[in-house]
Design brief:
Helix content is 50%, strand content 21%. The chain contains six helices and ten strands; from the N terminus they run E-E-E-H-H-E-H-E-E-H-E-E-H-H-E-E. The protein has a five-stranded mixed β-sheet, with helices on one face. The longest helix has 73 residues, at 39-111. It is elongated and about 140 Å long. The chain binds adenosine-5'-diphosphate.
């Protein structure tokens, strides 16, 4: 690659890497070292620069990817911590209410010297009601935490929509069968089967029915209807209750979102019910929507595509 030139006096060592005088015996002559192909140097320099640029770019990409990964982990950890704190705060607050009521009823009974049967029954019924409320709250809490930890395993199978509606209605029928409440169930004939986990889906419907009860003053009119739509089956829970403003209707499916102002009398929930319903509906690849008029009532509709 290297050429050795001996240059006579007056010749420029053009393109040479360097040149030296040839010595006293040849005054004016020079010995020069030059590259045979001057592009060799440029090409190898360019190759090296390119490799440095690639290595630099790769290092930047790796650092950015690691930073994003770390940020994502941190964000998830923070969200988890916040969720845990919210859960503890909300759930313990809501647990205290039915427990306090039960204690009060029991103490009143114990402090009454002469108990007549009617009062005792009334108090026992109230205690049973509070007990049920507590159980529901704990059930919801456990379902929620299982769903959140992705530990909830669904067992889907083709089910008749009428069976799902009946299973949910059976849970609430006795409670809703009181003066001041009309509860109706209407299921269309010949509905196609849907693919569902009957227990999970019942949990979703019972949550909607519970809400219909909680957010409706007397006289309550609560209806569960099941009807066929184009390529789905629609399960609707309708009430004539307080209804929802459009702004709230958009948010109620977020976990812990409650419309009632904080510290107002408890309704026996902690804002998890509808987020559970939404998770269950999503696992069924279904949709849920709410149509509501403030002061007139709400209708929650779950659509499941046919199996
Ligand atoms: P909560 O435990 O408070 O009932 P949910 O997630 O079930 O939690 O509901 C969230 C909020 O949505 C409730 O606090 C309530 O304000 C509103 N909501 C739910 N269902 C109804 C309904 N049928 N009518 C009016 N408001 C409702």
């Amino acid at each position: 690659e290297i050429r050795l030139d001996i240059l006579p006096p007056g010749h420029d060592p053009e393109g040479a890497l360097f040149s030296l005088p040839a010595g006293d015996t040849m005054p004016g002559w020079r010995v020069a070292l030059a590259l045979r192909d001057p592009r060799t140097f440029a090409a190898s320099t360019a190759a090296r620069v390119t490799s440095y640029v690639w290595a630099g770019a790769l290092a930047i990409v790796v650092v950015v990817a690691l930073a994003l990964l770390a940020w994502d982990l941190l964000r998830r950890q923070l969200a988890l911590t916040r969720l845990r704190n919210d859960l503890v705060a909300n759930v313990t607050h809501e647990l205290k209410t039915p427990l306090a009521s039960m204690r009060l009823f029991v103490e009143t009974l114990l402090d009454t010297p002469e108990l007549d049967e009617r009062t005792t029954r009334e108090y026992l019924a109230l205690i049973a009601q509070e007990n049920l409320r507590l159980s529901r709250l704990i059930d919801n809490f456990l379902t929620f935490s299982r769903i959140e930890r992705e530990k909830y395993s669904y067992a889907f199978r083709p089910v008749a929509p009428a069976a799902l509606a009946e299973q949910a209605a059976a849970v609430v029928r006795e409670r809703f069968h009181v003066p001041g409440c009309t509860f109706t169930v209407a299921v269309d004939d010949d509905l196609p089967a849907v693919s569902a986990d009957p227990d999970a889906f019942t949990t979703a419907l019972v949550n909607l029915l519970d809400n219909a009860w909680k957010y409706t003053g007397e006289p309550k009119e609560i209806a569960l209807t099941v009807a066929a739509t184009d390529d789905a089956v629609a399960f609707a829970v309708r009430d004539n209750g307080v209804g929802l403003a459009p702004r709230d209707a958009r948010r109620i499916f977020q976990r812990f979102y409650q419309v009632r102002p904080q510290h107002s009398p408890s309704t026996g929930g902690c804002g998890l019910g509808l987020s559970i319903v939404q998770s269950i509906v999503a696992a069924h690849r279904g949709t849920i929507r709410v149509d509501s008029v403030p002061g007139r009532g709400s209708t929650f509709t779950i659509c499941l595509s046919t199996a």
